[in-house]
Structure formats: C-alpha cells, structure tokens
Amino acid sequence: MGQITLREVVKKFGDVTVIPSIDLDINDGEFVVFVGPSGCGKSTLLRLIAGLEDVSGGRIEIDGRDATTVPPAKRGLAMVFQSYALYPHMSVRKNIAFPLKMAGMDRTESDRRVDSAAKALNLADYLDRKPGQLSGGQRQRVAIGRAIVREPAAFLFDEPLSNLDAALRVSMRLEISELHQNLKTTMIYVTHDQVEAMTLADKIVVLNAGRIEQVGSPLDLYRAPKNLFVAGFIGSPKMNLIGGAEAEKQGAKTIGVRPEHLSLSTESGLWPGSVGVSEHLGSDTFLYIQAEGIGDITVRADGEYPVRHGDKVWISPEEGKLHRFNADGTAI
Amino acid sequence: MARAVSTSRKATVTVIAWAIGIAIFFPILWTILTSFKTEAEAIASPPSFLFFDWTLENYAEVQERSNYLRHFLNSVIISFGSTIIGLLIAIPAAWSMAFVPGKRTKDVLMWMLSTKMLPPVGVLIPIYLIFRDTGLLDTRTGLVIVLTLINLPIIIWMLFTYFREIPGEILEAARMDGATLRDEIIHVLTPMAVPGIASTLLLNIILAWNEAFWTLNLTAAKAAPLTAFIASYSSPEGLFYAKLSAASTMAIAPILVIGWFSQKQLVRGLTFGAVK
C-alpha cells in the first residue's frame, strides 16, 4: 500500500511562507513527479511527506492514517537523495543492509534481500567496496538498493539524477522506470527537468511558488495546459507565446502554439518571417524565425529542412493546436 | 587538462622538497647530534658533523642531576589532561555550531579565534595573581586549566571544520532508514567524526606538550613538565650546550615518536577541508 493524501498542507520557514496551502491525492502504485523551477517548493513538499520537515499546518495521511507528526522512520517511506547520502564508512553491503539492521531483521533474511537487490541493480560484484570506490551511477544504484530492501510503502526521490552526466541520466531514468514497472510501488519523484517528468510520470504535479499550477498525466499537461506557466514549462522546445494584435484576433490576451505544431512553407502561410538561427539535431531542426509583427518564433521542422539564414518563410499553426489564454494567464 | 610532468621538472621539485625537509629537520638533527658530543666539541669551531667522539655522558649527567621521569609524567598529565577536558567541552560546542548554526555562530567562532590574537604575556600577571591566591601555582591542575583554556579555540575550530564536512543529508538518510537518535550517533555520526576527533586530539597533545610560556611561568619544581626540564639546563655561564641538547632530545623524543606514527592522521587533520 502507498496512498498518500495531503490536506491543506502549509509550510513556513520563520516569516516566509514556502507552501501556502496544498491539497493532493497520490494513489497507490502511482508514479508522481513534482516538477517546477528552482525554489518552487517541490523539494520542501517531498521533505514534508518524508517527515524531514515539520508541517506548519494541515494534515498528511499515509494509507488513511494521520502521519502528520509521525517521525520519518515510522512512516514506512524510503528516500533517495540527490547527493546519494551513502554512509562513507560502510561497505555497499552494509549500506544496503542498514535499514534492515535498524528494523532488527535477522541476518539470513537481511542477506537474502540485500543479495537480491544487488542482483537486480547490477551491484553484486561491488558489495564489498566502499562508496568512495564507486562511480556516480553505481552510487545512485546503491542508494536505490538501500531504499528497495525495506519494501517501503512509497519511494521518495529527490532529484536523484541531477549529479549524473547526460548519458548516464538517460539510462538511470530507464532503470527507475523499469523498477516502477516491476515493484508497482508508489513513487514520488522531484525534478526540475521536464523531460524526466514527462518520461517517468503517471501523474505530474507542476509547482510554482509553492502552489500547484496543474495536476495531470504528462499528455494532459502537454495537450491542455491550464495556464501560461504550465504551457511554458511543459514541452521542449518551449511553447511560443504570442501577445498583441495576433492574440486579439483570436479573442485572447496571449496565444500559444508549440514549435512542433507549426507548419513551414516557402510559398504561403499565415505569418511571414525570415529564418534566423537554425539548430540541426539530425532528426529535427529547430528554426528560430523572426516573424513580422510578432517576434521570435521557434519551429520544429524535419531534420533536413532546406532553408538558410535569411530565407523568407511562412509559418502557420496547425488546426486546433492553438492555445488561448486570457489576461490573468488562465487557458480559455 | 592534465599536463605531463617532465622528468627534469619532477627532479627539481624533488630536490626542492628534500631541501626544505632537511632545512626544517636540521635543528632537531643538530640537537640530537650535539647531545652525543662533549661540551668542548659542542662549541668547537668549525663544528664536526659526524666525526667526533660519541659519548653518552650528557644523558648520564642529565639523568643524575634531575628527575626526568617526574617531568615526563607531568608533561603527560598536563598535555593529555588539558586535551581530554578540552575535547569534552569542544565536541558539543563544535557539534552544535556545525549542525544547528544560529545567527551569531560565525561571530562566536571569530570571537574565540580573536582570543588567540592576544599576546599571552598580556594576561600573565592577572593569571599569575589569580593562581597565587587560589593556590594553583606550580600545580598540575593549574596548568591543565590554563592549557585547556589556551587551546580550546583551536580545538573547537578544528572540530567545527570537521563536523561541518559531514553532510546533513547522510543524517537524514539515517533517519529515513529507521535509525533512532542513538543509532544515528553510534552507527553514523561517531564513525564519521572519529578521524577528525583523533587528529584534533593528536595535534592538541603536541601543542600542549610543547607549550613553554605558561608552563615556565606558572611552575617551579613540583608540576614542572619537560619544557621546564629543558630550560633548567640553560645557564648564563659555563658550558651547557651538550647537556641542554641531551635534555631537549629526551623531552622531544616521546612526542616525535607519537608524531611519526600518526603523521598520516595529522596531515589529514591539518589539511582537512582544504583539499578534497
């Protein structure tokens, strides 16, 4: 089981209110990602759930029981930290076995669990090493191993991949995804990387300044962002946001269209412009186009789209892919 | 980019390192050599380096004239005593400043360091008078108190830098893993803090062992440690270099041996936090 409910949770540090009031339901077995820019309160929210910070108001329920004042050790949650937080003086085996030792589990059962976790995480050959002798990816796997062996109600991940290099990040992302498929345990994952959020989550919680901007599946957020913040945050490259006369024509204060929902033509179209920088990624080309009377527009085109710097082009948004926002930033 | 170090460059660095090492060690070596010379050879000009009549008579005379063992015992009690009491005070102090820093933690640290900037002689008379009136003059207790106070800022600073290096996330991880405060202290904190405490202990014993200003000024006969033992061989007239050297050698030998065996720990202690 691993159902977590937040009711009017508030967090203040002295006079500073970091989280004004949050309500959130996390269902058993769900992979929930908290995403948002730095300082949006996502890590604080995770630490409140973990019990590492005390709430200033509201309730946290785990599996229907009030856990608001329960100490972290008793909440039945396991956490993987950004810095891995391994015990440097213990071998990999002892690191992974530590929570079991704390739980007073007998040696044979503990060894069995450690061995099976080590096998699953490709750590079997490193059990006698110290964390200092491991690479970043291996250390992160030890941290995950330490979390798995406890068979917790939920896993909490605090930006677990941000200390890894790009290639390793992609493969660890897959491993975490696979882990979730196999264990089917609730996972709460904090990241500022919207690609990680999109690829891993069943449900994304977009946070901004301690408030939830939108909760939904990755594709929900992609297709129907509730407001300008979510529109600009989810999707890469970012959604083009256009104000002024063009928006008013559509009866909105701001209109938004994603780079992949714009079609390009060298002959005709809605908005004329000239090609600025083009970034060739092989499979795609990102074109930065100075559209007349609108400003810079990013377009995602085919890998070998034949235009050059300064070429005159026309761009038009695809049917039904235009997002409209009113003056306070909410979607119409 | 890593640069290949050329052989000649390496050789130059090696020569310089050895030269500096020998320059630093030379006074100690010379003291040891002098202690085996006769008084006449000790002041001979030019001095002979190795080819002299090696003799043990200085050691015999020093042993005869004063009780080495009593001074040695005083040194041990004073240096270990002040260090252990210092650690007992400093560990909780450094701990709280490293893990629960307040608004004024930095100021407190600076203030403690600032007490080391005062020349000791500036407070000699008040302390002397207090000691005289409380009967602490020439007692081991008195010296333990003074040396504890003198070295406390350094002990706290060293421990503070050590403790600050222990990442808070590790303690949080332990709490998530189900450790109680007691488990946290036994299984995580202590093993991580022990190397730091050990090198602080070692360094402070050496500092206390070599402390001469207070030990010379506040003792006469009963509580005099080895520093006073050495000083007693310096006299305004007559030949005393060889005997003084013998006394010095006997005084520094124990600490030199401890230092030699624990040098790895010491170097780590002195550079901790400076290099990663």
Polypeptide structure, described:
The complex is a heterodimer of chains A (332) and B (276). Chain A has 332 residues and is α+β, with helices and mostly antiparallel strands. Helix content of chain A is 27%, strand content 32%. Chain A has nine helices and 18 strands. Chain A has helices spanning 42-50, 92-102, 107-120, 136-148, 166-183, 194-200, 218-223, 228-233, 244-249, and strands spanning 4-13, 16-26, 31-35, 57-62, 65-66, 77-80, 154-158, 186-191, 203-208, 211-216, 240-242, 254-257, 262-265, 271-280, 284-291, 295-302, 312-317, 323-325. A six-stranded mixed sheet of chain A has the order 6-7-8-3-9-10, with helices on both faces. Chain A has a five-stranded antiparallel sheet with strand order 13-17-14-15-16, with no helix packed on it. In chain A, α2 crosses α3 (107-120) and α2 (92-102) runs parallel beside α4. The longest helix of chain A has 18 residues, at 166-183. Chain A is globular. The two termini of chain A are 39 Å apart. The model of chain A has no long low-confidence stretch (mean pLDDT 91). Chain B has helices at 7-35, 39-42, 57-65, 68-99, 105-114, 124-134, 140-164, 168-176, 181-210, 213-218, 226-231, 241-261, 263-271. Chain B is an all-alpha fold and 276 residues long. Chain B is globular. Chain B is built from 13 helices and no strands. The A-B interface holds A 50, 52, 71-73, 77-79, 81-83, 85-89, 98-99, 102-103, 146, 150 and B 167, 169-170, 172-180, 183, 187-188, 191-192.
Please give the structural blueprint.
The complex is a heterodimer of chains A (332) and B (276).
Chain A: E1 4-13, E2 16-26, E3 31-35, H1 42-50, E4 57-62, E5 65-66, E6 77-80, H2 92-102, H3 107-120, H4 136-148, E7 154-158, H5 166-183, E8 186-191, H6 194-200, E9 203-208, E10 211-216, H7 218-223, H8 228-233, E11 240-242, H9 244-249, E12 254-257, E13 262-265, E14 271-280, E15 284-291, E16 295-302, E17 312-317, E18 323-325
Parallel strand pairs in A: 3-8, 3-9, 6-7, 7-8
Antiparallel strand pairs in A: 1-2, 1-4, 4-5, 9-10, 11-12, 12-18, 13-17, 14-15, 14-17, 15-16
Helix pairs in contact in A: 2-3, 2-4
Chain B: H1 7-35, H2 39-42, H3 57-65, H4 68-99, H5 105-114, H6 124-134, H7 140-164, H8 168-176, H9 181-210, H10 213-218, H11 226-231, H12 241-261, H13 263-271
Helix pairs in contact in B: 1-12, 3-12, 4-7, 4-9, 7-9, 8-9, 9-12, 9-13
